[in-house]
Amino acid sequence: MRIPADILAAAVKDLSDLVAIPSVSARGEGMEACADSIERLLAEAGFATEQHPGDVGPFVVGETGDGPFTLVIYNHYDVQPEDPVDLWTAPPFTLSERDGRLYGRGSADDKGEFVSRLAGWREFRKTHPGPLLFKLIWIAEGEEEIGSPSLNRFLDKRFPDTKADLCWWEYGEVDKSGRPIILMGFKGILAVELECRTARADLHSSLGAIFDNPLWRLAAAISSLRDASGRILIDGFYDSVIAPDPRSRELAAKPPFPLESLQEETGGRRLLEGVNAATFYEHLNFEPCLNVNGFHGGYDGEGAKTVLPCTGMAKLDFRLAPGQNPVEIAELLRRHLDAKGFDDIALKVLDAEVLGVRSDPSHAAVDLGAELLEKWFGRPAIIQPSSAASGLAHPFIHKFGATLFGAGLTHHGAMLHSPDENILVSHFENMIGFSAEFFAALAGRFGSAPEAEPHV
């Protein structure tokens, strides 16, 4: 389907203006300027707007409408650093169009998502200019790319008693074949560092006959954490996992793509024991996992050096299921190491902020969204119970009580966080059209008290 050329042109102009602002939160650069632009766009679209300070970048809030149904839209305006600049085909902070794609830092993550929704909102209001019969809260933050350090505090202070029905998350995906993917959840994450020291300084390797080696210690400790199937062997690790609801299990039982295509796309070959073409999608959606991100110590230069290292370090991350608290898992990890005789290994928690969430996909708004996505993309939407990745959605789900709805334009070749980040113009256009009709559908379905579903 197509939208009028002037609507698309106006949206591309808005996106170009936002991409031109290098709002890199890692450097604290361009944050106020970008927040001001976001606020101006929301105000011009009819929202009552305000800004609130964050640790690095301001939070922008737009509100409009009133009614028994509340929609929260969450986006972010900060972007990743542009380095390495020499790998970009065109300047990273200049929106450029080539071969049906729009390139620029933030074009996908997350300025393009914001602009497509806002353009759709404008079109919706042209045909529905009267009072909005549901409440809409639009939140744009400037710290997502650095872990959203002040998001929880901001939400507690600004929205202490707010309840919501639906949270339209910052992004959604479009697969390689053009099918839109609705994300209903994310895994939590715990990132840790293990360090072992066995001497003041590196020793001659002949002393390995009497002194222990920190790299052996770390290897033994890490190997005690997981078996060949990927199951984590820490006592109590799975005790708090929330089992998937029947509808989520049903969705995960039918993979929307074959395992072979994932292996071809990623180059991954060696599977965990018990993972096969029939079970891999359930593992991606529901199973926690433990990764060794890096293992460091000793001599790694050219040639040989017969040395007994004095210290070693490993970085690990746990992807966690809903119900698992990262802080509690870190405590269980410490107890496991001590019980196995690795009390000399120091444990440092690097990230324990993100909790796993998974929403019930049977919410009526999800069905509305799936129907409209199919209309605009021409392919049936995939409702995915949980992304295999992590996102800081839990405040909106746990505090607001909202159902998560992750729908957007991020395709699998978008080069997120990399040079030549991009979106497809056709997906941008589809999401503008989808957004306009989604707002209209929500107003029609939930915009009056007799038909509205209660806040969850």
Automatic annotation (TrEMBL):
User: By what name is this protein known?
Assistant: Acetylornithine deacetylase/Succinyl-diaminopimelate desuccinylase
Q: Where is the Peptidase M20 dimerisation domain?
A: 187-341
**Superkingdom:** Bacteria
InterPro entries per the record?
Cyt/Met_Dipeptidase, Peptidase_M20, Peptidase_M20_dimer
- Does the entry feature the keyword Hydrolase, yes or no? yes
Which segment of the chain is annotated as a signal peptide?
none
Which GO-annotated molecular functions does the record name? metal ion binding; peptidase activity; succinyl-diaminopimelate desuccinylase activity
Entry's Gene Ontology BP terms? lysine biosynthetic process via diaminopimelate; proteolysis
Q: Which Pfam families match?
A: M20_dimer, Peptidase_M20
Question: Which organism does this record belong to?
Answer: Rhizobium hainanense
Gene Ontology cellular-component terms for this entry are: cytosol
Q: Does the keyword Protease apply?
A: yes
UniProt keyword terms in alphabetical order: Hydrolase, Metal-binding, Protease
List the SUPFAM superfamilies.
Zn-dependent exopeptidases
